[in-house]
Amino acid sequence: MSPRVPDKAAYRNPDAIADSTWEVLEQLLKQAGYFQSGLRKAEVAREMGRNIDCQAKGSGNFRVFRDALIEAVA
Fold first, then answer.
1. Is the pTM of the predicted complex or chain greater than 0.70?
2. Apex 40 CA angle, 72 and 30, nearest 5
């Protein structure tokens, strides 16, 4: 998958993706040759969690979720 996918207009604002975001992610990963038999959500979520930069994400919904988690454990 191209590292430039997030730069494409359809994906710049994740909160505006009309379809199920998991379905969109699965479609992108299948196009890149991954998970041809279906997306394994738990595996993908674990891997994303290891690599995500929580401070750099631009999604408003993600920031609210992140801030709520930080407040809950503080």
1. no
2. 120
